[in-house]
Amino acid sequence: MTRVDSMTFALQHADLLRARATAADFDPHLHGTYSVVVVTNGTAHIWSSRWNRTVRAGDVFFFNPFEVHAGSAGGLAQYHVLYPSEAFLDSCSAAIRPDEIRTIRTEVMTRSRTTLHLADALATADDASIEESLRQVLRECDFSVESPVSTSASIARTVCDLVRQDGLRSTRTDDLAREIGVNPSHLVRSFRKTIGIPPQTYVRQVRVARARELICAGFELDDVAQMANFSDQPHLTREFKKVFGVPPGALSRGVGR
Questions:
Q1: Torsion of CA 114, 116, 120, 126, to 10 degrees
Q2: How far separated are the first and last CA of the chain, in Å rounded?
């Protein structure tokens, strides 16, 4: 069960949202952007579809867009999360073509001068220092760039692509299975084994990712709920809390909307 003691947000600019949090546990969830997590106090066990290990104060770890992940600190851990856009990544490495997908292959960057510089910059909340320190961290990461064809080889990856292309419509599992020509129960088993959550949970969290973008763009929560295809604002709030541990109003206030 997701248990968050506190979380606050700050929108540095359109290409970099950041959050500061204290939490004990996070259920499996995803974000629509890259996530760079800086542990400042405590330890936590983290898993994703790519890796599974324990992180400690001074470590920095990474998730790619739509990569399902979860964590448990046992007690409480304090950390910062930076959500850089594709454009921000372009400023740290070579830009990619529209038909390519960039993946951070680095799992965890253990405590070092580079990670501590980023932690210090976040502690002082100096925007320029944060950006430069984050760029240095990302420059030390290992990346791969591949075409969508190679990432759609499995049933689960194909479903992910379909959901991302039209994640705001009501996507039934039977419809997805029919579209790619497999049995619905086989689709659910394959998807959950590969991605870590059922297809319908994935669909809802893609909508939450879209809602986050809309809130940062300045839209009111009622409008966000409608635009992201939630039944109403309470529905948006329930799903948003499953991902962030706090209601969407916390993000709206944090980014000054």
A1: 20
A2: 29
